[in-house]
Amino acid sequence: MSDSFQTIPLSSGCQLPTVGLGLWKIAEEKTAPMIEAAIRCGYRHLDAACDYGNEVQAGQGIQQSIAAGLCRREDLWVTSKLWNTYHRPEHVRPAIEKSLKDLQLDYLDLYLVHFPITLKHLPIEHRYPPGWFYDPTAPTPRMEVDAVPISETWGAMEELQRSGLCKHIGVSNFSTALIRDLLSYASIRPAVLQVESHPYLAQEKLLRYCNQEKIAYTAFSPLGAGSYVELGMAAHSDSVLNEPIITQLAEKYGKSTAQITLRWAVQRGTAAIPKTSRIERLSENISLYDFALTDSEMAQITSLDRNHRYNDPGVFCEKAFGCFYPIYE
After folding, report:
1. Beta carbons of 89 and 120 less than 8 angstroms apart
2. Catalytic residue among 52, 111, 134, 217
3. What pLDDT digit, counting tens, does each position of 260-270 carry?
């Protein structure tokens, strides 16, 4: 079945593959072989970040794949992200240059502002990735906030695109209000928004706004609770994959519950970056283009929306890092 949902066209004319491999929480020793296996089975979209701590190994996996003839650099879409400690304009270029060095790349396809959270700068040579604590050895370690206007950070992001260090720039974990403000002064508009999105957090208004503004939308944690169980931020019983409508559709189409959930994501016009540490799951997560859900089935899955957010800085920053820092209402 030919499927128009395999990529999302961007205003630049480039195509964003709708299913990518998220590298969050993949162990360093597993990252390179996981990337090579993913590319071998058809992935061309890789989602990395400074904060994930595995960009060196990701670079090894990319280069091994290119050397093995599995792909060319230009076949890949590689995303990375600006960490919270590098928001001051003078720190933005060194941050992307470090990611490029680690990934062994000359350019990124997309560079995102990871969070609308600004923390005091930590030099790369002092600690990298810098993490959330300013000083982990302090008697009471905590986040240390540095008030940097998003407009200043965005101006430096625009310079990265102009210089060719990245082909596109965008934002992650931004609300409609923050995006609207950004668009009021941006010389280069964000190409992509990446946010938590799954049937329990459908974000219909945010998606509609992005469609209106021609900003591509990428869903992280598209399967919901799974990535957060080991962090103590969710229970196995929270999984959307256990929902009766999901299990019924899986049986109807002869697919896994994960495939039904990911198909819902791409069929509503978003990209999705499921994370897996199991090579056998790679083929399953990308095999979404040989069936389609009906409009009624799509609506049933969307109706599961609880506005339930697993990745909420307004909760985890205070609990884990000693600083109340809400970014959503």
Report:
1. no
2. 52
3. 999 999 999 99
